[in-house]
Design goal:
Helix 7 (178-199) runs parallel beside helix 11. The protein has a five-stranded parallel beta sheet with strand order 5-4-3-6-7. A five-stranded mixed beta sheet has the order 10-9-8-11-12, covered by helices on one side. The protein has helices spanning 4-8, 19-23, 58-65, 109-114, 138-142, 157-170, 178-199, 225-232, 283-286, 289-292, 307-321, and strands at 35-38, 44-47, 54-57, 73-75, 98-100, 119-124, 147-151, 206-211, 216-219, 249-252, 264-268, 296-299. Helices cover 29% and strands 16% of the residues. By secondary structure, it is α/β, with parallel strands linked by helices.
Length: 329
């Protein structure tokens, strides 16, 4: 089911970014002294010394973890119903930190305070709002520790990862560590492979979709951080007609599945059934040329925001695109 969380995760609502947030460098170091960092809301965070007790929303925690930083706590949906780690947790070892407030709209301020945090880090999936931080809790949270936001709003995911790398460095992580250097190189190579493949298939029409029992959703590639990267690399995404106030999707009935001709369909893996195992229930999808040609592939919008996690996803996409051919004319 598409919830507010699942609809927006990994997405942005506009292309606006505060310019100062990208240009101002953090200060402070391991030897002590004041620490400053301007986040993507344009908020300057100041601490008497570099923060060491960091609490992060699980998506941010996964990004920082792969850069060598170890938060003391994480909040947001990190586990499945059976207790195993959710995809959003990435490589985070959930036994090595305190997990709390996994339910959307709830933030346990007392559990946050018990961790004696010096900084809270969270994605920005809606302009100026911290993901999984309820508006009602902001004042109480910021009375305990400052908050820092990393923007995903219309920002290609490579730039989002770079921003996490800047923050991780400011917090003392070693980006020259072998696993980080290797992951960055593999991400660069995988990105180039997508770009090279896309260059060989100019004019190919790719449509990103999701669905619920009642509606089909056509994804706007400029709104999603991950899809924005693919478009930047040259993948030819179809841009649907969306409401500027709700730019992530164009919502239609299943009867309009053929509204946009497409050579390739990338479906939201979180809602795969209408495009895979339950095609019989959605005959308008089954009749699509891309479906008939077998040119329908999974894409996970919840891939954790790190070089290490995205490189395999990009390699798989390259392999999928290498198998397709134009069919829409």
């Amino acid at each position: 089911m598409l919830t507010r969380r699942s609809l927006l995760l990994g997405a942005g609502a506009t292309l606006a970014l505060a310019a100062c947030s990208k240009s101002e460098s953090p200060t402070g170091g391991a030897t002590g002294g004041p620490w400053e960092f301007t986040d993507d809301r344009g908020v300057k965070i100041s601490r008497p010394t570099r923060p060491t007790a960091v609490v992060a929303q699980i998506q941010a925690a996964a990004a920082l973890w792969d850069l060598g930083l170890r938060p003391v706590g994480a909040f947001g949906k990190a586990t499945k119903a059976d207790g195993s780690a959710d995809i959003l947790a990435g490589n985070v070892d959930l036994t090595k930190l305190t997990l709390f407030s996994e339910t959307w709209g709830e933030f346990a301020v007392e559990k946050f305070a018990a961790l004696k945090p010096e900084l809270l880090v969270a994605p920005i999936q809606v302009p100026k709002e911290l993901w999984y931080v309820s508006k009602e809790s902001v004042a109480a949270i910021e009375a305990i520790a400052p908050t820092l936001g990393i923007d995903y709003v219309g920002v290609p995911v490579d730039k989002v990862i770079d921003r996490y790398a800047e923050l991780a460095t400011a917090l003392g992580a070693d980006l020259n560590a072998e696993p980080v250097v290797k992951a960055k190189a593999e991400f660069a190579a995988a990105s180039k492979a997508v770009a090279d493949q896309a260059a060989q298939q100019k004019g190919l029409k790719v449509l990103f979709v999701s669905g619920t029992p009642d509606n089909l959703y056509f994804g706007n590639p400029d709104a999603f951080s991950d899809i924005a990267l693919l478009k930047q690399l040259g993948v030819g995404f179809v841009v649907p007609k969306f409401d500027p106030k709700q730019p992530h999707w164009e919502t239609v009935s299943w009867e309009l599945a053929d509204k946009y001709p497409a050579d390739v369909i990338l479906y939201d893996v979180r809602n795969a059934a209408p495009f895979t195992t339950e095609l019989a229930k959605y005959p308008t999808v089954g009749r699509l040329p891309a479906v008939k040609a077998g040119q329908v592939y999974a894409w996970n919008p919840e891939t954790p925001t790190s070089w290490a996690q995205f490189a395999p996803a990009l390699r798989q996409l390259t392999a999928d695109l290498a198998k397709v051919r134009p069919i829409t004319g």
